[in-house]
Amino acid sequence: MEKWLEAAQEYDRKDTIQKYRQEFYLGENIHYMDGNSLGLMSRRAEQSVLDVLNDWKTLAIEGWTGGERPWFYMSEEIGGYMASLINADKENVLATNSTTTNIHQTVRTLYQPTESRNKILVDELNFPSDIYAVQAVLDDHGNPDSMLKAKSRDGHTLKTEDIIGLMDESVALILLPAVLYRSGQVLDMEKLTEAAHEKGIIIGFDLCHSIGAIPHHLEEWDVDFAVWCTYKHLNGGPGSVAGLYVHPRHHHLGVSLKGWFGNDKESQFDMNHEFDAAADISQYQIGTPHILSMAPLLGALSLFNEAGMDEIRNKSLNLTDFMLEILDAEFKEYDMEVVTPRGHEERGGHILIGHKHAAGINAALKAKGVIPDFRAPSYVRIAPVALYNTFEDVYHTMKILKEIMETKEYEDFDNKRGVIA
Questions:
Q1: 100 among the known binding-site residues?
Q2: Are residues 239 and 368 in the same domain?
Q3: Is 101 labeled as ligand-binding?
Q4: Domain shared by 275 and 360, yes or no
Q5: What is the pLDDT averaged over residues 364-368?
């Protein structure tokens, strides 16, 4: 394994965005490889929370419109910071709610079924919460059997042609992941959107595992809507407020879940009982924004706009290329399956490894200072994050993993997931 250490150190010397590593709290003797579940705290995120707390302390209720970052406009301000990550106009991007609430809000608003066109197309590999929300919308419309699921040929990935093959005149709306949360496959959002629109279908994407890891061009691709969380690659902290994009051609529609923060801001405090919808994405807000859960994003997002998504993506691919190279060379005898697609156009920011003792392997890695995560039924996800992981982190992770496989140390741990995995 020593030759890989020399290679890692050489890669790190050439790393153009390594300076951002010092912005994060990394922990001692820890190789954190779970940024696709919860990103690390940055010093800037910490400071922005302290700044907002200080506004509360010193301004009290005047913080809604006073101070450097008035709370009344914070959802829109943070939306503007995220707009560059998806290459969209800031009037079409918002920080609000949770991902699941935003799925309810967008799907309930944009799904307008007719007798002949009433299906919603999803996929069988998507995160469960997306499916729960879509099913709830269909149930409420009296169309409980109108969910259409794209099937996987191998249980891990989806074929673009298989999804397009299901697009017909019975489909009203499509919701798909941009990156599959298990395998890390990137879907061809541009091609899928073009095919959907040829059939008159509204299409949206869940960006939870893609935003902050890969570049997006949602307005260029003509995507109708997108939702995402901010606590994974965007490092917004546990429970940080989610993101939302809706194409402006849909802003004239009346939002399904109405609340006072979706009202036009100029008339909001007139307190009329008639809803006066904001003209732009702001109408998708519902209740009072969660200021303290947005505060970390004020600092965290500045790192992305400085480093640039192209640089982040390039390093991310190089990190996972390096990991795959070591896995191919050093792990042939351990009956491990690398599930993640190899091609750069199809690979997100993490690698999924299958093994019958995956839960035990995951526990053994954590015991030795490597933090990945486990995904049922038998997979370990490893996510080296470009802003704070190094190639030497990848080397040490692989070195420790090989030691665990050689000694079968995973047998010392229960091969079952914890309550949270």
A1: yes
A2: no
A3: no
A4: no
A5: 97
Confirm whether residue 206 is marked as ligand binding. yes
Determine if residue 127 is labeled as part of a ligand binding site.
yes
| 157 has binding-site annotation | no
User: Going by C-beta distance under 8 Å and a sequence separation of 6 or more, which residues neighbour residue 298?
Assistant: 45, 48, 51, 52, 69, 74, 77, 78, 81
- Does 288 belong to an annotated binding site? yes
Q: Name the domain boundary from 288, 306, 324.
A: 306
Measuring CA to CA, how many Å separate 78 from each of 8, 94, 231? 36, 7, 14
Q: What is the pLDDT of residue 258?
A: 97
- The answer to whether 129 is a known ligand-binding residue is yes
Q: What is the pTM of this model?
A: 0.96
Q: Does the annotation list 393 as a binding residue?
A: no
180-215 pLDDT, tens digit each: 999 999 999 999 999 999 999 999 999 999 999 999
Q: How far is CA 193 from the centre of its chain?
A: 19
Q: Cα 38–39–40 angle (5° rounding)?
A: 120
**pLDDT per residue as tens digits for the range 281-333:** 999 999 999 999 999 999 999 999 999 999 999 999 999 999 999 999 999 99
